[in-house]
């Protein structure tokens, strides 16, 4: 995955834990400033800092865990830090491919590609934050074309 | 456009002048919808007019409510059109917002003809045409029952022709008998052979085994209320809907269940008040599953069902709706699956035992679960004791030791339960994979044996948590087209090597090219 993907993932993670961290840190500062309960204030500040560090580390590990490949017969994705998943979708079963990009992804030139098979509950393979070129190439290779190549995408 | 599609004179003749033209459903359908609207409206107005002090002018306004219902029914009838042609079935409807559904013959999974009681009285029937993969369903409600029957069988034949054509072009997932006919003209339809007919004894036993808690609950409620007095019988009234829909309706719906098969399709016919007939292309069948409730397993019986990629499976049943048999001797599913697949299928004797590490994983999970439950109970008890002690604060050490003791007790209980359950799991559960089939058996109290046709595999998911990684285990989840979580084949706690083997064999099985990818 693109190194820019790590930036996007970190920003998203910080946005998720940010609100909670803000409450905890504000509480800690308030306790310290008012002088009511110094140990509690310090504890809250430490907890707030730990949450940010944990989000940062977890995101890095999650980013490193993502591996995907396109073979002659399948599209595969591995990811997960605590629970690891290896999803395999036979290419003959691909129903459609969607490419999405939010504002942040668009700024960084990234897109998320989801490969769908039949059945609403099947685990669609979602490859987050590819570069737009990688996403287009993947979509072109997955969707059937009469003269299309079926070689694996090298280096991905 | 429908009219521009190539026609086949045989189909035209069979289906008559309606073939390829937009048509409305039967006008009697309006009566079917008007009965409840008018009935409710009249009852409401009579009740309102009988109430003293009601302004007559307000009654006129209230009369508009049922009138609007009548208008909605008429608009629904006037704006709904369907068309059937060689390309498939189309439905368009809507007054303000227009909606159109088009299901091509390649996408049709099932054709179902149903006749609820009121529709039967009026000589009507509904035809439901369903597709796979979230495309949708067309419900033609309602047609004259003769037209519905003819349309149902006509659609089935169109789909069958299309499939045989696909088989001749090399996209073959058809049963062996059909594949062998590649390059030849389609054979005339053969008479359907009986797979199973549910007799009254089987139906009654199945109903009892499935609903005995509801039956006993109802009887207990009646007895308890009678102790209070006959006037308390009014208390039973709220229980009646649950009784009717939970016990009586499933029984009525399965009455006269008959399953037949011919060269191309599987047919079911069932129902006493609402009759229901379905026809499913044989090559559309994705899996056969045998369920054993606790009492069924003790008596050596099972319920056998099948599933196609029908997106509109009846979710209320909590399982596959299409039954092949309700209560037949254990392992009858193998014979039925072989009949449907038109070949030998993998049998229970092929099941591979799970590794001993699977038992250890079960023990560890239950130990952790026991410890968590024990800790939670310890915390609750400590809080309760502190509350009872009033102002006297318990020492922190006492509280912590109490919680630890409770957690340890829970963990010991978890270990004991986990040892028993773990050893039972590896004795009972198992899996077998061949190039054609995947067989999975799991569940201790409610046992389930699931036979999945390998060529129908949509996706494979290999998952491993921290405990599994430590024990060298993985869970393999195999998905097929029906959009139901309970129809996935989940093979929990197999070795990493077995998981990789399964992944390799199933991902290659799923690469069979189909004309529609399902």
List the helices and strands and how they pair.
The complex is a heterodimer of chains A (156) and B (518).
Chain A: H1 3-34, H2 38-65, E1 67-70, E2 74-79, E3 84-90, E4 96-100, H3 103-108, E5 110-116, E6 125-131, H4 132-142
Antiparallel strand pairs in A: 1-2, 2-3, 4-5, 5-6
Helix pairs in contact in A: 1-2
Chain B: H1 9-15, H2 28-50, H3 56-79, E1 81-85, E2 88-93, E3 99-104, E4 108-115, H4 117-121, E5 124-131, E6 137-144, H5 145-168, H6 176-179, E7 193-197, H7 200-228, H8 239-254, E8 258-261, E9 265-270, E10 275-281, E11 287-292, H9 294-299, E12 301-307, E13 323-329, H10 333-341, E14 352-353, H11 356-388, H12 396-428, E15 430-433, E16 437-442, E17 447-453, E18 459-464, H13 466-471, E19 473-479, E20 489-495, H14 496-509
Antiparallel strand pairs in B: 1-2, 2-3, 4-5, 4-10, 5-6, 7-8, 8-9, 9-10, 11-12, 11-17, 12-13, 14-15, 15-16, 16-17, 18-19, 19-20
Strand order of the largest sheet of chain B: 6-5-4-10-9-8-7
Give me the Rg of chain A, rounded: 21 Å
Count of DSSP strands of chain A: 6
Give the N-to-C terminal Cα separation of chain A: 8 Å
Helical region count of chain B?
14
Strand order, largest beta sheet of chain A? 1-2-3
Shape annotation of chain B: globular
Largest sheet of chain B: 7 strands, antiparallel
Q: Roughly what is the average pLDDT of chain B, rounded to an integer?
A: 78
- The best one-word shape of chain A is elongated
Which class best fits the helix and strand makeup of chain A? alpha+beta
Q: Whole-number radius of gyration of chain B?
A: 29 Å
Describe the structure in your own words:
The complex is a heterodimer of chains A (156) and B (518). Chain A is of the alpha+beta class and 156 residues long. Chain A has helices spanning 3-34, 38-65, 103-108, 132-142; strands at residues 67-70, 74-79, 84-90, 96-100, 110-116, 125-131. In chain A, a hairpin with a 4-residue loop joins strand 2 (74-79) and strand 3. The relative contact order of chain A is 0.15. Mean pLDDT of chain A is 81; it is low at 146-156. Chain B is built from 14 helices and 20 strands. In chain B, a hairpin with a 4-residue loop joins strand 16 (437-442) and strand 17. Chain B is globular, with a radius of gyration of 29 Å. Chain A binds chain B through residues 73-74, 80, 82-95, 117-125, and chain B through 132-134, 309, 311, 457-466, 469, 477, 479-485, 488, 503, 507-508, 510-514, 517-518. Strand 3 of chain A pairs antiparallel with strand 18 (459-464) of chain B, so a sheet runs across the interface.
């Amino acid at each position: 995955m693109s190194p820019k993907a790590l930036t996007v993932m970190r920003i998203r993670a910080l946005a998720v834990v940010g609100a909670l961290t803000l409450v905890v840190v504000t509480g800690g500062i308030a306790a310290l400033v008012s002088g009511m309960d110094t140990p509690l204030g310090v504890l809250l500040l430490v907890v707030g800092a730990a949450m940010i560090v944990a989000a940062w580390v977890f995101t890095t590990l999650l980013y490193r865990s993502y591996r995907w490949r396109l073979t002659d017969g399948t599209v595969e994705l591995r990811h997960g830090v605590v629970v690891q998943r290896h999803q395999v979708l036979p290419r003959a079963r691909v129903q459609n491919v969607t490419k999405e990009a939010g504002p942040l992804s668009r700024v960084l030139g990234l897109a998320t590609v989801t490969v769908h098979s039949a059945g609403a509950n099947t685990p669609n393979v979602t490859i987050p934050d590819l570069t737009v070129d990688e996403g287009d190439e993947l979509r072109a290779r997955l969707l059937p074309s009469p003269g299309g190549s079926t070689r694996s995408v090298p280096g991905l | 456009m429908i009219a521009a599609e190539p026609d086949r004179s045989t189909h035209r003749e069979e289906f008559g002048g309606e073939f390829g033209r937009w048509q409305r459903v039967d006008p009697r359908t309006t009566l079917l919808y008007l009965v409840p609207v008018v009935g409710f409206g009249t009852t409401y107005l009579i009740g309102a007019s009988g109430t003293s002090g009601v302004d007559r002018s307000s009654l006129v306004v209230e009369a508009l409510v049922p009138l609007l219902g009548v208008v909605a029914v008429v608009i629904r009838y006037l704006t709904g059109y369907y068309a059937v042609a060689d390309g498939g079935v189309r439905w368009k409807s809507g007054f303000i917002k227009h909606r159109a559904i088009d299901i091509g013959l390649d996408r049709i999974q099932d054709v179902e003809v149903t006749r609820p009681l009121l529709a039967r009285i009026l000589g009507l029937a509904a035809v439901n045409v369903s597709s796979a993969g979230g495309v949708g369903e067309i419900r033609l409600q309602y047609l004259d029952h003769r037209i519905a029957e003819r349309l149902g069988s006509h659609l089935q034949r169109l789909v069958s022709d299309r499939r045989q054509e696909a088989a001749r072009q090399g996209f073959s997932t058809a049963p062996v008998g059909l594949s062998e006919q590649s390059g030849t003209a389609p054979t005339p339809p053969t008479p359907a052979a009986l797979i199973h007919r549910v007799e009254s004894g089987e139906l009654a036993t199945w109903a009892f085994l499935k609903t005995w808690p509801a039956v006993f609950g109802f009887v207990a409620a009646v007895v308890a209320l009678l102790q209070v007095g006959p006037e308390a019988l009014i208390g039973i009234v709220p229980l009646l809907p649950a009784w009717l829909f939970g016990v009586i309706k499933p029984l009525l719906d399965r009455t006269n269940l008959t399953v037949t098969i011919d060269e191309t399709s599987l047919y079911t016919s069932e129902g006493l008040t609402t009759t229901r007939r379905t026809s499913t292309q044989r090559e559309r069948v994705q899996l056969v599953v045998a369920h054993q409730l606790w009492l069924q397993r003790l008596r050596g019986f099972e319920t056998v069902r099948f599933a196609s990629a029908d997106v509109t499976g009846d979710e209320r049943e909590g399982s596959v709706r299409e039954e092949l048999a309700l209560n037949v001797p254990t392992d009858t599913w193998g014979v039925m699956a072989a009949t449907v697949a038109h070949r030998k299928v993998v049998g229970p004797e092929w099941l591979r035992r799970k590794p001993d590490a699977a038992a250890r994983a079960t023990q560890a999970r239950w130990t952790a679960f026991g410890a968590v439950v024990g800790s939670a109970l310890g915390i609750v008890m400590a809080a309760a004791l502190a509350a009872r002690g009033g102002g006297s604060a318990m020492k922190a050490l006492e509280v912590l030791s109490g919680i630890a003791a409770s957690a340890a007790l829970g963990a010991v209980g978890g270990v004991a339960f986990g040892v028993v359950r773990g050893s039972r799991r590896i004795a009972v559960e198992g899996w077998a994979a061949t190039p054609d089939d995947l067989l999975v058996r799991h569940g201790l109290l409610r046992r389930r044996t699931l036979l999945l046709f390998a060529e129908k595999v949509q996706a494979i998911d290999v998952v491993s948590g921290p405990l599994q990684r430590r024990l060298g285990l993985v869970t393999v989840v195999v998905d097929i087209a029906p959009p139901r979580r309970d129809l996935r084949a989940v093979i929990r706690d197999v070795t990493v090597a077995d998981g990789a083997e399964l992944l390799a064999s199933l991902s290659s099985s799923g690469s069979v090219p189909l004309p529609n990818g399902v």
